[in-house]
Amino acid sequence: MNEKRIETAECVLPGHPDKLCDAAVDAVVDFVRRGRRPRFDGDGAAREGDPGGQCGLEAAVIFGTIYVTGRIAARKDLLDALDIEALVRGVYARAGYGKDAAGFVWSPHPETLGVMTQLCVGPFAEGEREMRHLSDDQAVCIGYANDLEETAHLPPAHWLARQIGRHLYDLRRARGAGQVGPDGKVVVRVETDGASWRPVHVSISLHHHEGSDWLFLRELAEEAVRTACAGRPTPVIELNGAGMFVAGGPMGDNGLSGKKLVIDAYGPTVPIGGGAWSGKDFRKVDRLGGLLARRLARSAIRRGLGREARVTLEYIPGCDRPVGIDLVVDGCAWSGEDALSRLGDPVIDNHSVWQAFVSAPIDLPELARWGHQIPGLPWETG
Fold first, then answer.
1. In a designed cystine with 289, which of 79, 184, 285, 331 is the match (CB 3.0 to 4.6 A)?
2. How far is 97 from 1, CA to CA, in rounded Å?
3. Is the distance from CB of 257 to CB of 204 less than 8 angstroms?
4. What is the rounded CA–CA span in Å between residue 243 and residue 70?
């Protein structure tokens, strides 16, 4: 923890093809979870609904078409109201596709987007709902936390990459019309000893068109980095190192849900279990276990066990709670009951954890875009 080392991490903007897929399937999960009526802008008003619906979805995009596959089980009235096309088009619009304030069109336009589905949709099978407290799959889930409040208890490079990405997104919406496209990438490098850190280098790739003002793009990138690094030395900034980035989003690359697992978790300095979160309801152990592991890691820090904690949970099909738990704090390891005792014997059974998480006032597509580790959410309380 006291030796200086280099950490790197990346972030992609909401218009990136993979993040479009993550947000699209999570928009559907969010509708089923809360009973939301779809609107084109993706911000439908909440209404009373049964949060016990089941979703296991994936998506793929290329050019002007998105493909959504998987299973949805829920009440009939909710399924009748489900408009996947409207939800997905709202995701594209929120990411910045379509006509911007300057009249420039960034393709694909949400209104002409092709939405193809291959889904198993219907009510729960007889007795299926009663089995939902049991894991329907295997999963290895990892949660991490450190004692750095300024980085939301995340690795500094990972936190900084997200901050720069968010500032770029906000600056584009505020001032980038006619110049900056929805797609973009950020890679940061920081030097850290575990207790302190400083930014060293930032690479930014901004989506644009052939007539975009490169000086404006540079000013936008520098402002995003300065804002994110406020109070620290400004790092070296490299913009569009490969040259022009005019074929952006799905018009330049294909995308899949579940491809940005390292970005969704804690960056490359922390192992990941391997299961995607987006597209899965809160009963699915990939998401439920991943969030529980984060909560337990936060708890280890809050209880003063050390400066850096990692929790690993093992789930197998048919279990009603993790069958294995490992805790590592500042290099010291505990397993099973010893680990739970150190953590204050928390409640970890699937149903209780689901009840604690499912009604949280969250917007799942936003978590898909910017990460689940947002202060104030139930798994962030520790």
1. 285
2. 43
3. no
4. 38
pLDDT(58) > 60: yes
Distance CA 68, CA 78 (A): 18
Calculate helix-pair angle for 84-95, 17-34, nearest 10 degrees: 130
- Judged by DSSP in three states, 155 sits in coil
CATH 1.20.1250.20 fits 17-124, yes or no: no
Residue ranges of the alpha helices (H) in the chain? 17-34, 76-81, 84-95, 156-175, 214-228, 261-264, 285-302, 336-342, 350-358, 364-370
Two tokens at 154? Answer: 């995340």
Q: Which CATH architecture has domain 139-149+258-380?
A: 2-Layer Sandwich (3.30)
pTM across the whole model: 0.94
**Mean pLDDT over residues 66-83, rounded?**
94
Q: Does domain 5-12+155-247 have CATH number 3.20.190.10?
A: no
Decide: 68 and 20 in contact? Cβ < 8 Å: no
Task: With H, G, I as helix, E, B as strand and everything else as coil, classify residue 353.
Answer: helix
Sign of the CA dihedral with 362 first, then 366, 368, and 374 last: negative
Alpha-carbon distances of 96 from 91, 109, 113, 294, rounded to whole Å? 9, 9, 14, 31
User: Tokens representing 233?
Assistant: 């030395």
CA distance between the termini of the chain: 22
